[in-house]
Every structure is written in C-alpha cells, then in structure tokens.
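On clarity, I found the account of how folds are encoded harder to follow than it need be. Since the whole study asks how a given chain folds, the encoding of that fold should be made plain. For illustration, here is how one protein appears when written out as sequence plus structure tokens:

:::
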Amino acid sequence: MITAQPPSSLTPSPTSTATEQPSDPITVATLAGGHFVHDAFASFLSPLLPLLIQKLGLSLTLAGSLSAMQSLPSLVNPLLGMIGDRVSLRWLAIVAPTTTAVAMSLIGVAPGYIVLAVLLLVAGISSACWHTPTPVIVARAAGKRVGMGMSVLMLGGELARGLGPLIAVGAVSLWGLEGLWRLIPFGVFASVVLYWRTRNLKPRMAQRKTDSWAETWVELRRVLLPIAGIVLTRSFMSIALSVYLPTMLTREGDSLLEAGGALSLLMLAGAIGSLVTGTMSDRIGRRRILVTVLILSPICMGFFLNVHGWVMAPILFVMGFMTNSTTPVMMAMVQEYATGHPATANGVYMALEFVGGAVITIIVGALADVVGLRTAFAVCAFIAIFGALFVLFLPNQKKVVSTLMKE
C-alpha cells in the first residue's frame, strides 16, 4: 500500500542543508502515478488530430493553434509558483486529473473549432495547476537525489505520453470519436487516490530571502535565461515530433493505428530516456548530459527523415530517448539553484516549456503548410542543434552545491 509520509519526513527544518534532506520515495512514486493519469488524458490531441482535421476541415496552421490553446494557460505558471512559495497548492494538483479527463474526453463531441478550443483551454489551465506544485514536492521528497526524483516524476509523464495515444486510438476504435467520455471515471479515480495518499502531506513553505518579484528574478536569472534558450531551441524538434508525427505518417499512407503506435514508441523511449538521464546527471553532471543529448537528437532526426520501412522504428526509439530526456535534468537544476523560491522558479520554467511550445507549434504548422511536413521537420532539427550552445552559460553544478552547503 502507498501511504504518505508525515510532513516532518518530507521537508527539513530551515536550518538543514541540502545534503541532510531525508528521502521519501513513496511520495515521489505517488506523484509519478498521478502524473501518468493526468498526462495520459492530456496527450489525446495529437493522435486524434488527423480525425479532428478531417471532421472540422482545419488547416495545419489552425490545427497547430489547437495545441497552442492547450499550452497558453501556462502563462499563469509563474503566478501559481509565487503563490505556491507561500501556501500549499495541493488541492489544485488533486483536482487536476479529473478536470483534464473531462475536458480531453469531450473533444470528440465538440461541434466546432470554438468549443474545441475552449475545452483545450480548460485542459491547459488544469495542466498548469498540476505541473507547478508537484515538482517542488518531489524535489523536497527526493532529498539530495533530486535528479533521480525528477526522473521518476517524469517517467510517469513520459509513459503517459507514450501510452496515451494508444489509449485514445483504442477508445476511438471501440466507441468512435464521440465515445471518449467513457474514460472520464479513470481521471476521477486518480484524483481520489491522490487525495487519499497525500491527505497528511503538508510541505513547509520555502525560506525566502525576499518577496519581491524583481529581486527574485535577479536571483533566478543565471539559471533560467540559459535554460530558456535550451527550451525554445529544443522545442522546435520535440513539438514537430509530438504534435505532427501522426499527421505526417497518415498523410504518407500509414493508418491511424500505425501512426499512433509510432508516437507511442517515441514517447515510451522518452520515458526511458528521462529516467536514465536524470539519474545519470546526479553522478556525472547535468551539463555533460545536456550537451550530449542536445547534439545527438538532431542527428537522429536527420537519419529518421532519410529512411523508410522497419528501419524507422529503431531510429524513432533512439530519437525519442534523446529528445525527451532533457526535461528532468533541467528541472533538477532549477530546483537546486532556486532554493529560496522553488515553486516560483518551477512556474517560470513550466511557462517556458508550455507557452514556448504553444507558439512554436503554430510556427511549425505554418511552416509545414508552406514547405511540407518533412521539410519542416528538417528545419526544426537544424534549429535544435543550437540548444547545446546555451549549456555553456549554465552555472556550474559544483558551485551551486557549494552555495547550498554554505546556506
């Protein structure tokens, strides 16, 4: 049975150092399970996009704007983060799986673009309420093994993004696009379990040096500015694959099931990559992992675009392993550096991930309308290479740890 640890075991006293924090793997596993359920529903749009395009007569640009609608509410993440550094946002995380399940399970019955966009906006707001507080709790629960804690949390999300498309395609095969609502009880069940397992969880608020947003930004910008560069350049490639891969494959003759399977393979590989790279970064350094992954990912994309048949599968696996494995490493860096404002820093990071991704989704869709999806994929891979340059501006991990020890 999974049970929440008492609050005293979750968070050290204000005088504790980073190396004295106790590890609470049960809390990490509980949140990872919630992450799986939430993100499984959140992943429904991409595999069903070909059907929605056909049903509603959408262009790729307009279809890309749907994904943007789901991501734009993450603009509120920094605000949620600032609130989360002062009060507990546990209840927002608890209701998020139910809210996302309802919104994403009703996209099949949306009569037009406007209703569909509203449902995706609701799902996006729910996603913001989930993704802002949970990494902060996990960082505290993981103790000094923050990289591993983030890897386990992201494993739940990446597994969801891998299995979510199969769940969506399978549900449509059984009940049709309008029958997705039958999946809503799974989201409700997840919220009930999260409440039950975390009912005694009362994480303490961060010990802040200042309440000023301007001073907070001065403290955080050394790590957040280079991470913003990495996120935005890398997002061109990850968005192209996660949003438009099924559409490209179905347009080239694959069935919806085959396209959904390809997306699932990509995401499952990303789940493995997230677990491996976050854990390895605890041992060999975050910057080394980031440079390696950011250089190899575009190379894999180049191979993928120039092969056909069964050879695509292993390359797709390696590409997924590389492309989706940077997130836990960067999340660990954010939590290690932002000791005084962990929720605020995580909110800013999540806003960069989701809002940047929303804008880039529209850009990639517009580019694909002009030059075609395959050429657009190649351009995205070229842009992603430049992400490695921003790693040079990240603060050295040893210096960060030394600072934490002095505090």
